[in-house]
């Protein structure tokens, strides 16, 4: 067969016709959500990309099968029932998002990453309901293969191999018929992507960052220094708290489902700014999950030593730490910051660690506690039982020798597609901006899983090998600093300029009439937050984002 087409759709159709569905999906690189109708065989095929960059909803409403990239599209159908799933609300309160395959509506699912579903429409409806998605690519298989046949070679060999693969992946995702740029925070991941873009571009790459006036939440200065070194065409925007809060009323409509990662606000704002200059923007997401970047991975090693301390001593220490308000700890750490650089919200982080000291036994239980905003969602959601998930049924039972690898695997299967990629995709698409994630090229993923842990975490330094690639383009001194999230000072906003808005959404009579939540529990959390006894901002944001979503979708 001689092929001269170049568009995505043309190429996919030719591939399906020549190689078949599964073989074509395995040859496809990048992000996609596909619906394919075989007119002759009368078979509908739905497929989602390997790592879950793009969304795909589907399900039965009565005898009608619905599918689409957004719940808005399904809701427009006259047979859509819009029955809220209280069990999904339990999962939402635990994870701040609704993990796949669940959705907020009964009967509607999210297609899992790396799978496809085929519906031969000549069959009986009950037979069609029983059909399940099939895997065409499995991260579990990739992880197992990487452990069984690890990379063989020196540090220099590995750095060169990763640099080459990343260049190829970034180069491919720079192909565009429209203006293209990149988000730049000044951290390791985004700086690496931008450095490799600029190394392959004859023009100055357009880069974008956003800053806040609040100390501890502004990384725009770091991004500017990296941009100056690389010679990019850099645009930065400093946003006031008032401007950031103007985004909040849009969130219920933007995310289709309740979604409560508060960095959704700066993500929307940087996407909005970027769209004024480009149509496509590359991001550095997934570096943490692939190269051991999150702080909790280091905690896995520390926990091995903590567990040697008798549980009674741990529990007593935890209760002692928790007896002191996070605001008091923050005042102490503010003084300490005169002598050593510390991340923001240290008081809250210490309080959470104390909770683990009191209640957690085993590294898997530690991980589950770390990824759970609350441990008791059934006490909060009226008339609901929390369902099992992939994480509880499969993920935490997966065989991994190194707890850091195990955490990275579980994050890549859950937190990455259910939170990080949802946040970026919806915020960007709300601004008609296409985002691309070069680190999620499956060949990068497969290479990362073949590298030994010593090349990911070394001498307490996370993402060691990714840093070595970056230092070929950017001096180390411009990058090294404590890890920070892409956040907002949410706790202060809730007590201050957002207080009236919170009081309206958490009004006791309103909550009772809606009938979803334990009103006393929520009001107690709000009161403790107002009084500064605890920073309950994440829990409260969960409830508030549900309320905003409910208001938009009644």
Layout of helices and strands, plus pairs?
Elements: H1 8-19, H2 21-27, E1 33-38, E2 43-48, E3 57-61, E4 64-68, H3 71-75, H4 86-95, E5 108-110, E6 115-120, H5 125-129, E7 134-135, H6 139-148, H7 155-173, E8 180-183, H8 188-199, E9 206-212, H9 220-230, E10 233-239, H10 241-245, H11 251-254, H12 264-275, E11 280-282, H13 287-291, H14 295-306, H15 311-322, H16 326-336, H17 346-359, H18 363-370, H19 377-380, H20 390-393, H21 403-413, H22 415-429, E12 434-436, H23 442-450, H24 464-470, H25 490-495, H26 499-505, H27 508-514, H28 519-530, H29 537-552
Parallel strand pairs: 8-9, 8-11, 9-10, 11-12
Antiparallel strand pairs: 1-2, 2-6, 3-4, 3-5, 6-7
Overview of the molecule:
The protein is 49% helix and 10% strand. The chain is of the alpha/beta class and 554 residues long. A five-stranded parallel sheet has the order 10-9-8-11-12, sandwiched between helices. A four-stranded antiparallel sheet has the order 1-2-6-7, with helices on one face. The protein has a three-stranded antiparallel sheet with strand order 4-3-5. The protein is globular.
């Amino acid at each position: 067969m001689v092929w001269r087409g170049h568009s995505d759709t043309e190429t996919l159709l030719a591939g399906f016709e020549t190689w078949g569905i599964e073989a074509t999906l395995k040859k496809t690189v990048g992000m996609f959500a596909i619906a394919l109708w075989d007119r002759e065989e009368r078979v509908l095929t739905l497929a989602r990309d390997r790592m879950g960059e793009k969304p795909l909803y589907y399900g039965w409403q009565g005898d009608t099968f619905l599918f689409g990239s957004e719940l808005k599209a399904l809701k427009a159908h006259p047979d859509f029932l819009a029955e809220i799933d209280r069990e999904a609300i339990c999962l939402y309160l635990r994870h701040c998002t609704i993990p796949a395959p669940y959705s907020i509506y009964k009967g509607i699912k999210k297609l899992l990453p790396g799978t496809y579903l085929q519906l031969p429409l000549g069959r009986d409806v009950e037979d069609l309901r029983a059909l399940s998605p099939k895997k065409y690519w499995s991260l579990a298989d990739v992880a197992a293969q990487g452990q069984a046949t690890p990379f063989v070679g020196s540090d220099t060999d590995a750095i060169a191999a990763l640099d080459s693969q990343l260049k190829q992946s970034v180069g491919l995702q720079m192909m565009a018929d429209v203006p293209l740029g990149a988000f730049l925070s000044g951290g390791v991941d985004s700086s690496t992507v931008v450095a490799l873009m600029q190394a392959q571009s004859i023009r100055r790459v357009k880069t974008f960052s956003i800053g806040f006036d609040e100390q501890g939440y502004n990384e725009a200065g770091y991004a500017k220094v990296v941009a100056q070194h690389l010679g990019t065409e850099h645009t930065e925007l400093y946003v006031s708290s008032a401007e950031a809060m103007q985004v909040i009323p849009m969130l219920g409509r933007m995310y289709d489902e309740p979604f409560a990662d508060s960095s959704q606000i700066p993500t929307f704002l940087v996407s909005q700014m970027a769209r004024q200059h480009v149509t496509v923007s590359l991001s550095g997401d997934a570096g943490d999950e692939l190269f051991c970047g999150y702080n909790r991975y280091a905690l896995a090693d520390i926990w091995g030593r903590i567990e040697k301390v008798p549980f009674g001593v741990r529990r007593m220490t935890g209760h002692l730490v928790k007896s002191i308000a996070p605001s008091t700890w923050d005042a102490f750490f503010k003084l300490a910051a005169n002598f050593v650089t510390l991340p923001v919200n240290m008081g809250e982080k210490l309080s959470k660690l104390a909770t683990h000291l009191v209640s957690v036994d085993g590294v898997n239980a530690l991980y589950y506690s770390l990824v759970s905003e609350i441990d008791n969602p059934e006490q909060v959601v009226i008339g609901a039982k929390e369902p099992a998930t992939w994480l509880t049924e499969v993920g935490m039972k997966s065989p991994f020798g190194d707890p850091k690898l195990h955490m990275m695997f579980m994050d890549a299967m859950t937190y990455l597609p259910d939170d990080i990629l949802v946040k970026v995709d919806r915020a960007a698409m709300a601004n008609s901006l296409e985002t691309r994630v070069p680190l999620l090229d499956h060949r990068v993923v497969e290479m990362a899983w073949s590298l030994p842990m010593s090349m990911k975490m070394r001498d307490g330094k996370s993402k060691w090998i990714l840093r070595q690639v970056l230092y070929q383009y950017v001096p180390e001194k411009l990058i090294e600093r404590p890890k920070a999230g892409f956040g907002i000072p949410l706790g202060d906003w809730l007590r201050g300029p957002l207080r009236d808005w919170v009081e309206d959404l958490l009004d006791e009579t309103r909550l009772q009439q809606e009938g979803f939540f334990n009103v006393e529990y929520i009001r107690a959390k709000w009161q403790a937050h107002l009084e500064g006894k605890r920073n309950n901002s994440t829990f409260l944001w969960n409830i508030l984002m549900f309320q905003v979503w409910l208001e938009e979708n009644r």
